[in-house]
Each structure stands twice: as C-alpha cells, then as structure tokens.
Amino acid sequence: MMNLKGFQNLIKTPDFTTASNLEVLILEGCTKLVDIHLSIGVLKSLKLLNLRDYRSLRTLPTKIGMESLETLIPSGCSSLIRFPEINGKMERTSKNSICL
C-alpha cells in the first residue's frame, strides 16, 4: 500500500516499476500533482486507485494494464481531460466500484 493522501506539495509520483506488487495507491488530495508517472501502467496487482480531489490532474498515461483493479475513484479530478485506454479484461471491476 502506498498512501500519499494529503501530500499537497507532491509534484510528481515515483517510478512504480519496482513496485509491481502494489495493491493500493492513494493519491487523494494531492492538489499540486500534475502527472502520474507512466509506469503506473505496469501495476498489474493494483486493486484500488484513489484519485479523489486530485484537482490538477490533466491526463493519465495513455494505456493502463491494471488487470486486478477493483476500485477506481476519480471523483473531484476537475481538470482531467483524457481518460486512458485500459488494456486487459478488468473482470474484477464493476460499475459500482468506479466512484465518479
């Protein structure tokens, strides 16, 4: 689990390449964060991605392969202009677990 909730001065995320077993990523309230590192797309074990109130987020990496994703929370991402293409079946994600 990586909980960066409320890190208001965070301007970039780390490279996630070595965190391939990460299951929970919380970026809620990281108001100055503009981009998420492209390596987020390799987090195949990620079950929960919380982007709530990540107001300055404009884009996500163009392709995401989060096969295990169960819960996605992008609510409050008011600057988001493009949502990525999600590769994989994402069989574990239901409509009720995407909290807009």
From TrEMBL:
Transmembrane stretches, start-end: none
Organism: Gossypium davidsonii (Davidson's cotton)
Domain of life: Eukaryota
Name of the featured protein: NB-ARC domain-containing protein
Signal sequence segment: none
BP terms from Gene Ontology: defense response
Gene3D superfamilies: Ribonuclease Inhibitor
